[in-house]
Amino acid sequence: MLATKTIAALATRRVPGSIRLKHTVPDLPYDYNELEPVISAKIMHLHHDKHHAAYVAGLNAAEEKLAEAQHRKDLAGQVALQPLINFHGGGHVNHSIFWTNLIGEKNGGGHLHASPLKTAIEAQYGSLGALSQVVNAKTAGIFGSGWGWVTYNPAIGGLDVVTTANQDMPSTLGHVPLLGIDAWEHAYYLDYNNVKADYFKNIWRVVNWKDVARRYDEAVAHQKK
C-alpha cells in the first residue's frame, strides 16, 4: 500500500494548466568511471543510460494510460495499471537512491564517519563489517532479481536489513530506505560474471556513507514529529 501511495503521488504531479510533468533520469552525481574498479564505466553507462531510462520511459507511458483511464472514469483500467506503475516506478525510485548511495573510494567511498548512524550500526550489529555480512547473506539469498536494503524500521525504532523482489520498494514493508544494493544481473554481470558474491563484497568499498547517514537522520527526525 505504501508503495502504491508513493507512486500514485508521483503520478499526480501537475503544473499550471494541468500539464503532467514527465519523470526524467537524474544525472549521476559523479563521472561514469568514478566507481572503478568496483563497478566499471561500461556497466554504469548501461545501467544508468539504458536500464534506468527504460524504467522512466515505462513509468511515463503507464501514467499517460492512467490519466486516460481516470478521465474515462475507468476504475478497472486504473486498477489494472497499478502493477505496471509500481514496477516501473519502483525501478525509478530505487535506482535514484542507488546512484546517490555510491561514491568513488578516492572521494570517501566506504568510509563510515562518526555519526548517529555509526552509533546505531555499532549498537545493533557490533560493527560495519558485521552489518555488511548480514546484508550480503540476505541479498545473496534473493531468488531471481531484487534488492538488498539497510533500512530504518519505524516499528522497531532502529535499523533493519531486508530484501525486496524485482523493483519492489522498502516502503511496501513500511520501512524507510537508507542503503540499497541492486542484485539484478545487469548491475554486476559484465564485471563479475556469475560470481555475484564478489560484487556484494566489493560494493561496500564505494558506499557513500554521508548520503546513508543523511537518510538515517531524516528518518529518525520524521518519526519524532
UniProtKB/TrEMBL annotation:
Q: Name one Pfam family in it.
A: Sod_Fe_N
Keywords of the record, alphabetical order, are:
Antioxidant, Metal-binding, Oxidoreductase
Q: Has keyword Transcription regulation? A: no
Q: What is its EC number?
A: 1.15.1.1
Annotated Manganese/iron superoxide dismutase C-terminal domain residues: 116-215
Which residues take part in binding Mn(2+)? Answer: 47, 95, 182, 186
**Annotated InterPro entries:** Fe/Mn_Superoxide_Dismutase, Mn/Fe_SOD, Mn/Fe_SOD_BS, Mn/Fe_SOD_C, Mn/Fe_SOD_N, Mn/Fe_SOD_N_sf, SOD_C_sf
Q: Which GO terms describe its cellular component?
A: mitochondrion
The reply on keyword Oxidoreductase is yes
Domain spans labelled Manganese/iron superoxide dismutase N-terminal: 22-102
Tell me a Gene Ontology molecular-function term this record carries: manganese ion binding
Q: Which reaction does it catalyse?
A: 2 superoxide + 2 H(+) = H2O2 + O2
* Gene3D superfamilies, per database record: Fe,Mn superoxide dismutase (SOD) domain (1.10.287.990), Iron/manganese superoxide dismutase, C-terminal domain (3.55.40.20)
What domain of life?
Answer: Eukaryota
As for family, the record states:
Belongs to the iron/manganese superoxide dismutase family.
What is this protein's function per UniProt?
Destroys radicals which are normally produced within the cells and which are toxic to biological systems.
Name by which UniProt lists this protein:
Superoxide dismutase
